[in-house]
Amino acid sequence: MNENEQAKLIAIVEDDPDVAKIIEQVLADFGFRTVWCRSGGDLLRRLRSLAPDLCIIDLGLPDMDGLEAMQRVRAQSGCGILILTGRAHVSDRVMGLELGADDYVLKPFEPRELVARVRSILRRREGSETPERQVAEFSGWRFNIGNNTLTEPNGDEHPLSTAEAELLKVFVSNPNRILQREKLMGSRDLAPTDRTIDVRISRLRRKLEPDADSPAFIKTVYGAGYLFLATVNWSGGAN
What pTM, to 2 d.p., does this model score? Predict the structure, then answer.
């Protein structure tokens, strides 16, 4: 049991009590605290006081679509989001990632895989950067890796999801280098048809690029990967 994980609170948004019980038990076995919400509305009512580190959201909720619940959570909180779904269509999972989820697990799921996905999201949120490399600056933009905030040259701020922030961290840490899709996805294995990285690139471009159809920073190198075209300077977290 990891000492740091004992303090992590996971909100489980699942209307099936049997499934929720399984998730609660396996997470408890690995030292996590949990709270069970039976519906999307239940989670949203309790979100401010709960302040979970991560939400596991079933897409098939009784009161609203899980994608809607996820969007509303993302608008209120910077917590990690893991989609749990029995839907077979790839489009549902892609849509979830498009709307801000960090990862997904398919039902029926292997409990240890669920724990691994939770841990992976939490690790990405915590990061391992030192204070000397807290803020990446490029072309007037500022990316604070301490709070996952992207600031435009005009001062407008954009909070990033965990997945978006993790992707941008890889880019700013490796500027002007062609990065393969596997490098950008970290430890997750990619199937040849996996569109996860493409979805995340698209989401990040919409926040970062004035013209997403003609990107200035994130260049596609066909057949090779992606290139972050910028000069990056690092500073501490103070403004």
Answer: 0.58
In the numeric block, the tokens 């919409």 are attached to 206
Rounded average pLDDT over 35-62: 91
Residue 79 and residue 213: Cα distance in Å, rounded? 30
Cα dist from 114 to 23, 47, 224, whole Å: 8, 22, 31
All structural domains of the chain: 4-126 (3.40.50.2300), 131-235 (1.10.10.10)
Task: Report helix, strand or coil for 80.
Answer: strand
Within 13 Å of residue 70, how many CA atoms lie on the same side as its CB? 29
Answer whether 201's CB lies under 8 Å from 218's CB. yes
As a whole number of Å, the CA-based R_g of the chain is: 18
Sheet strand arrangement including 149-151: 157-159, 149-151, 141-144, 135-138, 233-235
Tokens of 220: 């596609």
